[in-house]
């Protein structure tokens, strides 16, 4: 388990993405994506990360491993990862969620860090725009019970108009159609094979009325299926991509990894906001 220091937090904060949430978009270029392979720390981490993924799954399905893995996390590490991931999990389209006042679902919510960021974003948006008559309810669902326990332990709000809940196991199977205005899923569809992805998007379309936000890994690792043409699958299930950005998972440096704790290699990610076709 990571044990970040004050200096580690300061390093991540210095990236500037708290002041400019879309800084990763501004800094991305295809050349940087290609040049990351010249970075020795990235190459070594890529090899180690690939081996780790192989070790996770062995001869088993990655999703089965994910369901049973016991992954408790302390508050300091949880806050560090939330700050770290904010570089590539950007608030793309979140203004629509804040403006409308709504009910949303985070599918595969993990430890709840994205739920917390949605809560904080909406709370701040309402304060800045003097909005007092809206409500937000967030449902986080995940197949891993230990991560749901992490989310219940760490996620907080002081705004009486913002509520949340967390559900373990396959909540998607039991909820009614059109239950949510918006859905989001980060790091989920990349773990699904093509047949599973079809079933997943069909269900997301059934439960979502207005739009969806997606973060998806574009690099190939064991147990994963990157999809550069995810827009086609979305369109098949009645979503139109309104905005899409390919970014790197941290600020680019040709010599070292920018993350002082070196949690991942420099990953290629896509952020998508798609509106439901009415």
How does this model look, in words?
The protein is of the alpha/beta class and 278 residues long. It has a single domain (6-276), classed as Rossmann fold, CATH 3.40.50.150. The chain is 39% helix and 20% strand. The chain contains eleven helices and seven strands. It has helices spanning 6-13, 23-27, 30-35, 40-57, 62-68, 75-85, 94-100, 113-128, 145-154, 194-207, 230-236; strands spanning 102-107, 136-142, 162-168, 180-186, 208-217, 239-248, 268-276. Strands 3-2-1-4-5-7-6 form a seven-stranded mixed sheet, with helices on both faces. Strand 2 (136-142), helix 9 (145-154) and strand 3 form a beta-alpha-beta unit. Helix 7 packs across helix 8 (113-128). The model has no long low-confidence stretch (mean pLDDT 94).
What's this, in brief?
The protein is an alpha/beta fold. The protein has eleven helices and seven strands. Strands 3-2-1-4-5-7-6 form a seven-stranded mixed sheet, sandwiched between helices.
């Amino acid at each position: 388990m990571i044990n970040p220091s004050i200096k580690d937090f300061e390093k991540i904060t210095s990236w500037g993405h708290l002041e400019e949430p879309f800084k990763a978009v501004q800094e991305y270029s295809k050349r940087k994506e290609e040049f990351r392979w010249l970075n020795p720390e990235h190459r070594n981490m890529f090899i180690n990360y690939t081996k780790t993924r192989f070790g996770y799954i062995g001869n088993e399905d990655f999703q089965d491993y994910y369901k049973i893995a016991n992954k408790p996390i302390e508050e300091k590490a949880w806050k560090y990862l939330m700050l770290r991931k904010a570089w590539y999990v950007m608030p793309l389209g979140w203004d629509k969620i804040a403006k409308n006042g709504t009910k949303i679902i985070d599918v595969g919510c993990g430890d709840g860090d994205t739920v917390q960021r949605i809560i904080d974003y909406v709370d701040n948006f309402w304060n800045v725009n003097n909005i007092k008559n809206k409500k937000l309810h967030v449902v986080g669902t995940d197949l891993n019970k230990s991560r749901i326990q992490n989310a219940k332990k760490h996620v907080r709000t002081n705004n009486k108009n913002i509520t949340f809940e967390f559900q373990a196991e396959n909540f998607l199977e039991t909820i009614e159609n059109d239950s949510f205005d918006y859905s989001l899923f980060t790091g989920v569809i990349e773990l699904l094979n093509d047949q599973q992805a079809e079933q997943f998007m069909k269900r997301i379309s059934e439960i979502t009325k207005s739009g969806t936000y997606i973060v998806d890994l574009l690099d190939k690792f064991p147990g994963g299926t990157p999809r550069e043409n995810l827009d086609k699958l979305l369109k098949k299930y009645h979503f139109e991509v309104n905005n899409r950005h390919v970014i790197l998972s941290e600020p680019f440096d040709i010599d070292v990894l920018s993350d002082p704790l070196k949690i991942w290699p420099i990953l290629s990610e896509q952020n998508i906001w798609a509106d439901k076709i009415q």
